[in-house]
Each structure stands twice: as C-alpha cells, then as structure tokens.
Amino acid sequence: MKKIITLFINSLMVIITLSLLSACDKQVETKKSIRPVVTQQVKIQDNWQQATYAGEIRARYKMALGFRIGGKIVERFIEVGDVVKPGAILARLDPEDSKLQLMHAEGELEAAKAEKRKAQLDLRRYTKLYKDNMISAAEHLRFSNSLDIAKAKYTQAQAHLEVTRNQSDYTSLYADKGGVITSLEMEVGQVIVPGQTVVNLALPEEKEVIIAVAEGRLDEVRYADEVKISLWIDPKHFYTGKVREISPGADPVTRTYTVKISFIDTAVKAQLGMTTTVVIIQKKNEKVAELPLTAIFQKDSQPAVWLYSPQNSQVNLQAVDILEYQFNSVLIRSGLKNGQIVVVAGVHKLYEEQVVRLQDGVSW
Fold first, then answer.
1. Coil, helix or strand for 67?
2. Using CA atoms, how far apart are residues 319 and 322, in angstroms rounded to an integer?
3. Which residues neighbour 328 within 8 Å (Cβ) at sequence distance 6 or greater?
4. Closest CA to 81 of 254, 255, 175, 202
5. Lowest CB count within 10 Å: 158, 165, 178, 232, which one?
C-alpha cells in the first residue's frame, strides 16, 4: 500500500512539473512572437522639393588670346594650369620677317623725306622765277602740287612705319589680364594666321558652377526658391547661389541643358575645376509627410503604412496617397496626421492588430 501511495505522489509531481514547463514554454513562445519594429513619428510639413546635381567650378569670364600677325612660333613660355600676371609674355613669333618689314618702312620714310625736301627746294626756286615773270602761273602751280604730293607721301610713310613698328612688337604675345591658362592650341614650330586663338585664359575673379539639367527638370531650376552649393572637399559648408543662365539649346550628345549658377557669397574658397554639389530647392504649395521607402506596404495594389498605437502596442494598416517617390524616401500627400507613429522596418511581416514592441526600448 505504501508503494502505491509513493508511486502516485511521484506521478503527480511529474505531471505538475510538466505543466509548469509547458506554461513556461508558452510564456517564452508568446514573448518571442511579439515582433520588434522600428518606427518613426509623422511630421506634416511644407513640401520643399530638392534636386541634387554634380557641378564644376569654372570662370565666368574667359579670354581667347592670339597673335595679331601671322608667323612661325619659336618660343612658348607657359603650360596649361599656369597662373600668369598682367603683362606676362606667353609666346613669341619668329621676328626676322618683321625686322625686314621695319627696315623697308624706314627706307620708304627716308625716301619720302628726301622727295619732300626736293619738292620744297623746287617750289622755292620756281616761286622766285614766277615772281620775276620767268615762268607761267600753271608751271608754278605744278610745282606747288608736287610739294603737296610729297608731303602726303611723307605722312603716309610715317604712318606705315608706325604700323610696321607695332607689328614688330606683335611678334610677342602678352597677357592683358592675370588669370589661369586653361588650354593651349599651339606648339613651337607651328605656323599661325593673324587672329588665330592659341591660348585660353580664365579670369578667376568671378567663379560660377556649371551643371547639366534634363529638359524635364528645367522648371525646377528656373523657378528655384533656393540654390545651395557645396564643395566636395568641404561637403558640410554650403554657399548661396543664383541661377544666372540657362542654355537655350540642348547638348546634341547628352540632350541636357547647361545651367550656369553664380555665387552670391563673395568669400568662396574654391579653385577652378573643383567638383561641387548643387542643391536646387523649390517650395510646393502643399503639405506632405516624408517617410523611408521601407515604410510602404502594398494591399490590393494600393500603398499603405502600418500605424502603431502606443495604447495597446498594436499595428493597423492605413491607406495613403503618395505624391512622389524619391531616391530613398517617399512623400505622402494624404492619409496621415501629424504625430502618428508609423512602422518603417519589417512591414511585410505584420498583420492587423498584431502586438509589437519598439526596438531597443523606444517609446513615444
């Protein structure tokens, strides 16, 4: 009898133990089934639409320099990227032809001078003969006209000499203003014609940013409320800009339009050729809520989000109207209220009225 009682007690203890273990397993299983979620509070705000472009710093003003006369280049004193000061010599032509032309002009002037002196002496002598009635008035007038012609030739020879001297000086190319050499279109030994561009000089006093914009985004740029510019070497600092010019025609290769943006800030620490980020900001006449793309759930091909209720820790599906999809976010036009809490991660593993917990103990 005692053995039966002992066996009964042992069996009862085993049953109680198994029941306790089962209850613990259910509690653990229930606790594990409460899915952790990441949430974000809804903020209804003005729709400041932003578009980002990569740009390049360039000089607003450029100069294309060339020789005023033709000839053979014999010396070059610059390279691309050199910074030159006003009056610096850039290149020189072969001066031999100019020297010969100068000698020829000087000889023409001396000949015209001698002819003028002879005409003066002839007129003086024939004027005396005319007064003594030795020659006719017509003859005297002929020598007077000869002197006028000689004077005109002398003046012409003087002007020709000055032009030739100037052309002799034109064998050297100088920088009218200080700047940076951006390109060279000449080599030593090359024969050029007058006016041919051989040097491109950028004036660094006023800089601007060049960006390429697709035709569908031109209005955003044209009617921008703000333009911010940052350098890639200093991305945290933004300068204020202004759209100065939009190209009237598209690039034949890229089919984009060139937009030039001027700096409003005067103290711009940028060098020519640097890469920039240009942010075009435009205020729309509507209120939106911005959420990550991961917050969007699809139900019956309609976009929706999961709303979290702090009162019962449950989630419920809410249909929304999407205004625009952006790179990693989405703009919600309607369907949400300010202050609501939206699940932004793990939305595809949720169901209606599911109890969830905020990840890392986050609470609202």
1. coil
2. 10
3. 292, 293
4. 202
5. 232
Q: Is the pTM of this model over 0.85?
A: no
Alpha helices in 212-330 (DSSP H): 218-222
Check: CB of residue 172 under 8 Å from CB of residue 53. Answer: no
Structure tokens at 90: 């850039």
Contact between 307 and 341 (Cβ < 8 Å): yes
Map tokens 């279109």 to a residue.
185
Q: What's the N-to-C CA distance of the chain in angstroms?
A: 64
Which residue's structure tokens are 């759209």? 243
Q: What is the pLDDT along the chain (364 residues), one digit of tens a residue?
A: 555 555 556 555 655 555 554 444 434 434 446 888 889 989 988 777 788 999 999 988 889 999 988 899 999 999 998 999 999 999 999 988 888 888 888 898 899 889 889 888 888 888 888 888 888 888 888 888 988 898 899 899 889 888 888 888 888 999 988 889 989 999 999 999 998 999 999 988 888 999 999 998 898 899 888 999 999 988 888 899 999 999 999 999 999 999 999 988 766 778 888 899 999 988 777 888 889 998 999 888 899 999 999 888 899 999 999 888 877 888 888 888 889 999 998 888 888 888 888 876 444 4
Give the 3-state secondary structure of 189-245: CCEECCCCEEEEEEEEEEEEEEEEEEHHHHHHHHCCCEEEEEECCEEEEEEEEEEEE
